Amino acid sequence: MHTPLCRHATGEPWEYAAQARQLGLPEIGFADHGPMPRDDFDDWRMKAGELGEYVARVERARRDHPQLVIKLGLEVDYLPGCEDWIRELAGRHPWDYFIGSVHYLSESWAIDNPAQLARWKERAPLEVWTAYFERLTQAAESGLFDILGHVDLCKKFAIYPPEDCTPLYHRFLQAARRHGVAIEINTAGLRKDCRELYPGFHLLQLAAQAGVPLTFGSDAHAPNEVGLNFAEAVAQARRAGYTQCCRFTRRQRQVAPLPLS
Ligand code: ZN
Ligand code: FE
């Protein structure tokens, strides 16, 4: 979940926590968009100097809601060449987890940015999906992340290759499995043009078969999105063959039963 420091979310962490308590969730976690080495890289993340403020706001939510387990995470963009920066971020605070996300296929194109939708018309969907999954596979192999975020983000605008993408999924899932990286079911996909969970059912089923660990996320950018469509996500996990999920504390993975909802 996010905070206003990323400049496109509303509501403070303690407000998200209050909503979670109302829903009866036992545990939540924040993973706002972490800074890039250059603050002018884009305009939808916290600046490097705001990292301490982010941690302080999550800590205030913990103080305000001691009955709730609140995890401190970060959603970190994976771009080749950023590895040292990510390692440096990892050392700065007692993180519970890092979610690695691929939004950028180059320094200048975030494939999920509606303002850059025209870039999709410059190449075949399969070319974009292939480059996306290759980068995601690299992220899995980097050893920098506990979880990979919204793993089929390339479907956000419902631009699908006519070709079979199963080989792309397999390569990625084998890397995730080998490196012990989890994926998430992220319910934000239901709120985008693609109108389905990230990842889609076929990819989730392959992930279950490959033994890739699973977490759940609402990717909330506002308090009323906390835990949104969570029951549907859990049902989908079961249908795909998952019997367990996992949680993270200080970047250690623990096995947990699937939630009952
Ligand atoms: Zn965001
Ligand atoms: Fe993201």
Description:
The protein has 261 residues and is α/β, with parallel strands linked by helices. The chain has a single domain, classed as Metal-dependent hydrolases (TIM Barrel, Alpha-Beta Barrel). The chain has seven helices and ten strands. It has a six-stranded parallel sheet. A two-stranded antiparallel ribbon has the order 4-5. The longest helix is centred in the middle third of the chain and has 17 residues, at 125-141. Zinc ion is lined by residues 2, 6, 8, 33, 221. Zinc ion (ZN) is lined by residues 2, 6, 8, 33, 221.
Write out key terms for the chains shown.
19% strand; TIM Barrel; binds zinc ion; two-stranded antiparallel sheet; 33% helix; binds fe (iii) ion; globular; 261 residues; 7 helices
Listing every helix as H and every strand as E from the N terminus to the C terminus, the arrangement reads HEHEHEEEHEHEHEHEE
Proportion in helices? 25-40%
Tally of contiguous helical segments? 7
Total tally of structural domains: 1
CATH topology: TIM Barrel
CATH C-level class is: Alpha Beta
Heterogens? zinc ion, fe (iii) ion
- Give the CATH architecture: Alpha-Beta Barrel
Shape: globular
